[in-house]
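ok so for the tutorial part 2 we go from a plain amino acid sequence to predicted structure tokens. step 1 is just haveing the sequence, like this:
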Amino acid sequence: MSFTQRNVLTWLVLAAATLLAGCERPPIEAVQHGFRGTGMVQVYNPRIVADSIPLNALPDAVPAAAPGGPAASLVFQNVQVLGELSVGEFSRTMVAMASWVAPEQGCTYCHNAQNFASDEKYTKVVARKMLQMTHKINADYKSHVAETGVTCYTCHRGNNIPKNVWFTAKPEARSDGLIGDRAGQNTVSVAGAYSSLPEDPFTPYLLEAKDIRIIGGTALPTGNRHSIKQAEWTYSLMSHMSTSLGVNCTYCHNSRSFASWETSPPQRATAWYGIRMVRDLNNDYMTPLTSVFPAHRLGPTGDVGKANCLTCHQGAYKPLYGKSMVKDYPGMQAAVPPVAASAPEVVAMETTPPVAMAPAMKVAAK
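step 2 — the prediction. this is what the tokens look like for a chain of 366 residues:
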């Protein structure tokens, strides 16, 4: 083989490697999720699924406390949450929380070892607020978490800070150069599944309440802001949701008509409530803690880390693959009767709340 032929062969191999770099090697499994011919198929990589199983395993439950005994609020000082638990159950819950959130630091991550009642550490103030948030989710957002519920471990998984939180993106200075204004996108975006979609779809949708929609409800130009540019922000959020759950778009949408609620799988309604749940949590629990966190824990715009779908799901269609820890920890559930769930917003072109999905879509077509 001549030198020229070897060069040509080398370039062909490199070109082929480049073209195939974004492809996944087989086998890939496809599971029909709806009527035949609709493209309602979920595609899974068995290797990725296998790797995720141990990451979503439940930790061993702390041995149950003996029943009975005085309430924690009657024995310990400054117990503002969980005070109705017995001393034994309260202590057990504290041990579990330390293992879920601060396995290396232990109790002293939140407490002054010389005065456990003190609120001098900001982590204790945050932990109290997070317990209240957990109670809120388990009591008032069963439309999303059902009876499975959540605990501190759902998000933290043994980390002081959940691995997946987000901050509002820092505004960019306009550029008069050749590239011009990136408009918050046009670079590789992790949020948008490594595409050039907008880098921060969370601020408008999971903090603010901007329309998450592709199709406008009125004719142009009267009040219709559902342009192609606006649609890119929706696509970025949807890409984030798909990646966070490890599913295709058709997990929640009917490929025949993505906008149709009547023919969508039931998971779309669950996701609808989930978006509103996360938005409420970010506004009612995370943002009010801004002044509590030290500067090094804040984002580039001075905001706190907030939740999105990846915070809990971490690549699984259900956090921890639907296994519940709540039943083992009464302290993770509110002791008071639940209040009414946050009222869904009235959204044009959608039923509120979403209507029941078509019965035929609730099971895979035969």
